[in-house]
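task queued by scheduler; priority normal; single chain, no ligands, no partner chains; default sampling; output format set to structure tokens
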Amino acid sequence: MSTTSPSEQPSVVPQSSQATHAQNETEVIAVHGADPEVLAYAMAKYSRSALSMRQSLRELNAQRAEQFLNTFYFQYGHRSIADLAHVAFAIERLSMMAAIVLVDEQRWDGQERSTRYQNFLKSGWYLPDFGFAGDEADSARELYSKTVEDLFAAYAHTSAAVFEALKKRVTCPPEMKQDAYERTLKARAFDVSRYLLPLATNTSLGQIVNARTLETQVSRLLSHPAAEIRDLGAKLRDSATGPAYNVYAEEFAGLRDKIAEVSPILAAESEALLVRPVHAAPTLVKYAQPNSYELESRKELAHTAAELLGGLPIDPAPLVDLVERTESLEVEVAATLLYSTCHHSYRQIRYLVVGLPASQIAEIIDLGMRHRGRHDELLRAFHAGAALRFDILMDIGGFRDMHRHRRCTQIIQEFTHLHGYETPHSGDAAGLEEAGVVAAYQESMEAAFAASRQIAASGVPEARQSAIYLLPMGTRIRALFKMDLAEAAYISELRSAPAGHFSYRRVAWEMYLAVQRQHPSLAEYFRVTDFTEPIDLLKR
């Protein structure tokens, strides 16, 4: 199958007869309206043709783009072409757990619904399939539903209580409007009450990703043990390959009759152009399937981690642990592979792996390599060698904000009740003690943990996944952040700023202090905000 037009064939004109002269005529073109795959094809042609962008787009259509991509993308493995096709998605009414998994891409751009500026009482929540039948299923569903509803009731009560406590502490300045004052304090109250939102809570997000990221994202989602997330992967693939929502169709509908009065031919041509079905990425993600490399590696690494660490208690760990670099690269890779499938700290795993024979370390590394396919990227655990490794144990709500940092490698452990939960007694905003609801908060958290453990205790895989949805956002999660000095400074400076949430402000401050202890001459250049100093609650 030929994928080049006559205009793309190599020139046969002798080099000596070709004119060469200076051309100071740089042109920059913003392109709008081309289908993502057609645009990707046009840009890829730059490496194979002397045609301009305008010429390429004029002669292209979706069929030719598909022919080109089928050859160069799938047969030759030129996946960089997919970097040129960007697709926008609106993903609505997915659980917070699914949202965290969805956005866990290093090449990801998007925004999620804010727990600070929106009240989640009316958002609804996800009800999973527990893998049971009959009375057992009814019992699990009843316990699950009651737990979620109780958490939402506690969320509403805590939001109101903290808001009233804030109004007593913070006076509205004369120059500030009352509605702006109350809106600001409500946002600060949501900073506290969000700890009670379960992972089942529905949220929404928008993402704009290139087709290569989309393909790996879909494949990763299809490989997840949770049914909701596998279904989300299939829906993303179907949305990319099927007809996209056309914003111009609704606008044109109101003008169609007026245009037809002037010219029926013009109306028909306009409709054909503006209302035609657009398929955002019909070729580039159509073959995305579950990733067998990830699935098999995860299973074998989890088995090995259970053998090596199963009987080892999880050591207490600080909020932030900057693990100094003392081990070899081989030990780091092996330790990180195990870290990704257990709940122990990186430091604890590192100490264990250092004591293993070199042959056993090599076997662990091989587990992460042996199932790799021809076009599979290495597992994220192989992103090793970064100078700074922060092992962070924080609440899920705060982690969602830290998760946005893409200029580092994040190895995230699974959600679990094993690390307990955070209690925001106080902080930048009025805490639970000031609002008089500490006991009620702790009762709600303990009840959610108990219900989660009860549903998971059956041992049924679907039930274990379903139990995770009951964990509130205040539950602690462990993640390893590997980065260079510039990213450590960026996160410390940005996330310690007064406008941020007190959870990640504390983490950012502890990251700075950790760098200060190990690299004092470099930490002095960090422009951080002291977490221990009072802030103006009305400034955002």
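post-processing summary
- The chain has 21 helices and seven strands.
- The longest strand covers residues 86-95.
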